[in-house]
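Hi Q.,

Before the meeting this afternoon, I wanted you to have the FE2/S2 (inorganic) cluster prediction in hand. No need to reply - just skim if you have a minute. The sequence and ligand are here:
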Amino acid sequence: METKVMASFFSSALNEKIKSFIGRYETKRSSILPVLHAVQDENDWISQEAVQALESEHGLSVVDVNEVLSFYTMYRKNPPKPYRLEVCGSISCWLHGADKTIAAAKAHIAEGEKNGNPVPFECHKVECLGVCGYAPVALVNKDRHLNVTPELAIKLISEYSKKELPAAAKKCASDLAARSAHQ
Ligand code: FES
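Predicted structure with the ligand bound:
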């Protein structure tokens, strides 16, 4: 008799990573932080479908995972834009004009939306990024940028917008398209 193999919600590479993180800790609950990072790295965000699959496929409790998700702001609970400009708003960066950088970036993004020429970006203020001597500091996804003036923020947005989208962003877009096709 033919045995049907249920398709996993996650890729096989991600399943291996999840198993290896779970294996490193005494309790499954302790592995939730790195597991969620791995899921976010591949999918660009953490959907409730992913949370359910962590329980059904890997035995991580939905309640425990959602508790962690709601506590940490670094996990994206909604589908993001492909690029995130995250500007440090802590003391050194604030003193060196982080607020102006954030305002310029947000205005540039809003202008693109208004003119029908949107950029694949969102901008957020984040806590200290650990290189306070180069304030204001910002990340574009995982790339770190130093001395990010308003002009540099706009330049970064323009340059990244011309690049091919990151793999996680493409996966996020195709998951959302598949989801809306089934609704
Ligand atoms: S205060 Fe901005 S990197 Fe530390």
